[in-house]
Every structure is written in structure tokens, then in C-alpha cells.
């Protein structure tokens, strides 16, 4: 953001107006933060504290002027925070609270280490520098004293020479009233709870904003495809650490999701890298030990394995490509992979999840439930292209197993996807009932979940699409038990909630290399990691929402 002189004047005018409106002219101590940064490096945070609002304004404007004079050409992000709801707390109690959180990295308060806010950190600063961190996502968070000391030294210099965390008895927690400056306007940010620091949007016209998110995230995911067709798998953004592992399933489903975004906005320039990504998968992972029967390998080169889900993910990628392009160049690969899946399903419809390669001996009979729904969906998507009845019969057999073993207990998004597809082709009551059970039993769990599980929206949107057909397919009575209005409300709630895991500028600016992760989706409870599958699941759910969600009547084509 390079602001010309007149634009700077307008910005400062709006800034003064906002501060005067936000800060009350009482005798309480007031603290204002300015975060300035660019896409190449972590932003700098400056603050001022005073009883007098006008003194705060004067100092803030002076700091802004100085910053523009020095860095105007490289300022991309400007964010203003005002401390509010200040609470004095015992430091040991705060540490305990951080360590005993139900979900990691969900401590959403700023901390001042003195009453005068001489040494203080915004919530976003702490996560941006891994001051609050956990080594593993399912182990407790802790205060990393080394990172805290480094952060304070960089920010305050000599002021922290005598700072000793062990001597801290009391701290001051605070929320913030915040705005970010973007497109010559202040955008208000939310305060408190899970969506702290994330911008408000017009909830009455949210699809326009969701489309923008899809477009920005599709561009982000596209940029993760390297010239050889392999993805940059992901990052831990606090210190710009690249995740070095890899996964065939996620390679294929990420390409599937990127292709899916063409249903919202066609970006023809993406095809070059998409083709490279597909070719990479077929070159490095596709194996055909017997003519016409193929498998996708995964894992370490020394110990490769065949996952049922890898075959399924590849079919989803290839069939979505064919659906969007009407080009059958990859159909033969999908059909061979489908035969590979069929070798992993017995006469009762029970699957085997993982085989050794190249021996094809069983490695894991069961590994993760997602593979089953993925496999059924892959076969159905291919059936809709080639009309091979064997594929449909296989899926129906699998569903007998799913129903008998109560697979609806898993609230699995892939099972929701394939149930929706199956009921289009075979509108039988038992399949509809399974689809209902897959979400009805779990609505409270989804509503109360404080982490951004993007698969929830995928699952509910697939169920929603199924429900919109039930009336016209003659299942009015069954539809009455569907809690359709409740489902719609929950879809709206999770659509909004998922934005809590999106790297808007107001969040990304605190990470070490903002441009690397800007407009990516991240998982807060796992060190704010941003991985290709995090993009995939969010994109698929949002594409479905934009294309199919309708507040109105039930009966419409889905």
C-alpha cells in the first residue's frame, strides 16, 4: 500500500475520527497499538498509553508520519488496536489457563506485564512469534520463555534488560477494538472469543465475500504447485518453516478442489500447473502391476504402501477434470484405478485400507474411516461418466456394509458426499435415512466445536443437496424428520465460523513471511499450520455453499 500525500491526509483524518469515536474522554488509562508491515516481513507493533485522548492521537499521528516518511513504499498493512476490557490476573493462573485449554492456541487475549502497558503484546503478536506454543497439536500449550524474551528484546530493546519472567506476579489481560486499513477505508475487526481479530462482513450478502475468499484461496493453492507439478506441502508460519512431508491423497484432492473452483470462477491460466500436478501424480504415484488394474502408492520410497484413499482421491481428481473440461484424456487411468479399488473390497462390501507395495499383501485392514467414503464416491463419480454397472453394484454393496456397521456414527464428509450421489441414482429410503443419520446425530457437536473443522461444512452441504431433492423424489414424510431449518442455520453458522481459519492480512501480517501464507487457510490448534489439505477442504465446502445454498424453497435442482 503506497499512499500518496493526499491519501495519507485522508487516512490520518479517518484515523483521528475513529480514535475519537472509540476512546472515551474519561480518566481511565488508554492504550493504542499501531501495527505496520509489508508482505515480506513480520509487522512492527508500536503502542502509546495515556489518560488524555488527544495526547494519544498526537503521538499516533507523529508515529504514522515518521513511518510513512521512512517506509511509505513498503507499507502493505496498517492495523489499529485499542485495549479494552482490561483484567488484572495472577500470572500463574494465566499460565495454567494456557496449559489447560481444550484446544491449543485458543487463548485469545493480549497481555501487558505492567499496569501502565509499558511492556505488552497483542494476541496476534504472541502467536506470530510462537510465544504461546505447543510442540505437538494434541499436547498442552506453554509459554515459550526464550521466544518471549526474544520478542520483548526486539520490540523494546533496553527496556527489557531487567525483565525477569520469574518475578512476574500479576499481568493485565485485554481485548481489543480494532480496524485494518484497506482500500482506503477502515474495516472493523471482531473482538473476543474464537473470531478475535477477524474482519466483520455483511452477513446478509455473504456469498459475495465467500466468492472473493474462494478466488483468493484458489490463487494461493495454485501458487503452491511448483514447476515440476509437486505442491509445497505447507508451512508453520510463525517462523516460515516449510512442512517437508508429503501425501498422495492430499496431492490429488488438492488438485480436485482447485479444479472445482472453476465452478465459481474459471481461471484458464491455472490449467498449465493443474496439468503438471496431474502428470506428477501419474508419473510418480501411479503403478499398474497388472494390465488394467492400477494403484496409487504413498509413503516413503523404501516402504511404499497402497492406500484405498489414494486410489479414490486420484479418481476424484481425474473425473472432476473430465467433468469440467469434457476431455477424457485421463479416463483410462481412472478406470484402472477403480479396478484397483475393487480388489480391496470383499464379497460383503468390506474394504481393506492399506496394502504393501509391490507385494500387495495386507498392511492395515482398517486405518481411517475416510477411505471408505472416498472410495465409494470415486466409484460413483466414474460410474456417472462411463455407466459401468459393476461400479454401481460395488457401491451398493459397500453401502450395505456401511448401514450394517452404523457408519453414520462417524459424521464423515466423504460418506455424506457419496450418499448424496447415490440417492440421485438410486433414490431408496435406506440410503436417504443413512444420509440423515450422518448429520442428525452430530449437530450439537458441530455447533459447539470451537475449532475450524472445514469438513463439517462439506458434510452438511452434501446433506443439504440431498434434502433439496427428497420432496420431488417422493420422500416427504422422511424429510419431516430432517430438521432442515436447523441444518440451514448450522450451515450459515459454520460458513461464517470457518473464516476464523483464513489468513486475512490482519492475521498474516504478524507471521514471519506474510506473503507466503496470505489468503491461505490455517489450522489454529496445530501451530497455525497451513497445509494443502486445509485449502482443499475449505474450498470444497465454500464452492458448494456458493453454488447450492438457498435460504428459500426446498425443491430445486442440486
What does this structure look like?
With 558 residues, the chain is α+β, with helices and mostly antiparallel strands. Among the domains are: 5-200, no CATH class; 204-243 and 427-558, no CATH class. Helix content is 47%, strand content 16%. It is built from 21 helices and 17 strands. The chain has helices spanning 5-22, 53-71, 91-99, 123-128, 145-156, 206-223, 248-260, 271-284, 308-325, 331-342, 370-386, 389-404, 413-425, 429-440, 443-448, 455-470, 476-479, 484-497, 505-508, 514-517, 532-548; strands at 30-38, 41-50, 77-90, 110-112, 120-121, 132-133, 142-143, 170-182, 185-189, 234-236, 241-242, 286-290, 293-298, 305-307, 354-356, 362-364, 530-531. Strand 4 and strand 5 (120-121) form a beta hairpin. Helix 7 (248-260) packs antiparallel against helix 8 (271-284). Residues 553-558 have low confidence and may be disordered.
Descriptive terms for the model:
558 residues; alpha+beta; 7-stranded antiparallel sheet; 17 strands; 47% helix; elongated
Produce the secondary structure layout.
Layout: H1 5-22, E1 30-38, E2 41-50, H2 53-71, E3 77-90, H3 91-99, E4 110-112, E5 120-121, H4 123-128, E6 132-133, E7 142-143, H5 145-156, E8 170-182, E9 185-189, H6 206-223, E10 234-236, E11 241-242, H7 248-260, H8 271-284, E12 286-290, E13 293-298, E14 305-307, H9 308-325, H10 331-342, E15 354-356, E16 362-364, H11 370-386, H12 389-404, H13 413-425, H14 429-440, H15 443-448, H16 455-470, H17 476-479, H18 484-497, H19 505-508, H20 514-517, E17 530-531, H21 532-548
Antiparallel strand pairs: 1-2, 1-3, 3-8, 4-5, 4-8, 6-7, 8-9, 10-11, 10-17, 12-13, 13-14, 14-15, 15-16
Helix pairs in contact: 1-2, 6-21, 7-8, 7-9, 7-21, 9-10, 9-11, 10-11, 11-12, 11-13, 13-14, 13-16, 14-16, 16-18, 16-21
